[in-house]
Fold this protein.
Amino acid sequence: MKNLIAVFVLTVSVLSCNNQQQKKEEHNHQETQTQQEDVPKKKPLSPHTSAMAMIGDAHIHIDYSSPGVRGRIIFGGLVGYDNVWQAGAHMATWIETNKDLIINDEVLPKGKYGFFTIPSKDDWTIMINKNWNQHGKDDYNENDDVIRFKVTPSISDKNTEHLEYKVNKISETEGSISLAWEKVTIRFPFKINQ
């Protein structure tokens, strides 16, 4: 009988210890989960964003990733002069229109296009390209350009920390597209092809 009581007491003690250990582990697991949930998510360095506007019945949409200056020299530094740039970060920037546009006296048929530039000190080359779905400029091919033209950048004292596109409405049939980053802004007009 003494042996039976001793086995019973030993079993209860072991079960009690196991139960306390399990509760302690559950408590620690809950604390770890709570601590992980309290940690704020890190913001991406080049957040994905877009710019769009209605000009008359034309919907113009620009989709891009917006890198920050973060104290760096951008044009002539991070983005080298006289080199093709995808005009954003990561995937190539793209522009989509549901109406034909006239840009630089050329017709851009409705559709979706890659938007590339070649920055330089004096002027920028703008390229609107058939291949909109590509990483960076890896697959850029000049032969796929639908429209190619030059613009003169304006330099400002004001710093634009994150790359920013705007589609500006001028009238029911005219608008402009601008890109601003660091102290540089480029802008070009377009018309809705009636």
